Amino acid sequence: MNYPPKHHQEKQYENALELVKMYPLATVITASNNSVLSTHIPLVYTPKGTLGTLVGHLDKFNPQISHFEDKDHDLELIFHGPEAYISPSKYSTTQLPTWNYFKVHLRGKIKIKRAAQEVKESLIAMTAFLEGANPSYVLEENNPRMQAALDYIVGFHIVITSWEGKYKVSQDKNKEDRSRAKQALIDGQSQVIEHIERLYANHQTKG
């Protein structure tokens, strides 16, 4: 099989995990009973298991929980790293337009955690991870707002069974063009602030 090209595949699992930790908001895709559902959920990696385990939680009214409860469901997670359009004008040689990106796909099996104490511990651990090494906020165990929310949250663990790092960053180009594509990807991130401003300005809620 010639797809995906081997030069677009990350070799080291540790590198894939680094992206997962840098960009923890995953697209969680499930299939069950001829239905496909997806949710965007932050997931925290723990080293438990051969490839590790991801910890997360959902609103109890999210219909995707019915997929989690189906033991025959299929699951795929996508973690999204940096990405950008690369114009042919960026290269030193003649090329076609393309889109470069870092993505990690994981598959696994879900174990639902409904016990309030387990959900509470996962929320505290996730907050600590997302706050980083120098936290400006600590979620205390006796936080009253968290306590009130526990009845509406379903926790879960995903035991990772396989992985794939999809790193398409002009690896098939010469050294000079690889360097130029890298810089174009870096430069492309400067548009994020402008995009945030536009999205906020144009957003309208349904409610």
Notes on the protein architecture:
This protein has 207 residues and is of the alpha+beta class. The protein has a single domain (6-202), classed as Pnp Oxidase, Chain A, CATH 2.30.110.10. It is built from six helices and seven strands; from the N terminus they run αββββαββααβαα. Strands 2-1-5-6-7-4-3 form a seven-stranded antiparallel sheet. The longest helix has 16 residues, at 116-131. The termini are far apart. 20% of the residues are buried. The model has no long low-confidence stretch (mean pLDDT 95).
What is the tally of beta strands? 7
Percent strand: 25-35%
**Number of domains in the coordinates?**
1
Report the helical percentage.
Answer: 25-40%
CA-CA gap between termini? 48 Å
What is the compact description of this entry?
The protein is 31% helix and 34% strand. By secondary structure, it is of the alpha+beta class.
What topology does this entry show?
Elements: H1 13-22, E1 25-32, E2 35-42, E3 44-46, E4 53-59, H2 64-69, E5 74-86, E6 98-113, H3 116-131, H4 144-149, E7 153-168, H5 175-188, H6 191-202
Antiparallel strand pairs: 1-2, 1-5, 3-4, 4-7, 5-6, 6-7
Search tags:
207 residues, alpha+beta, seven-stranded antiparallel beta sheet, 6 helices
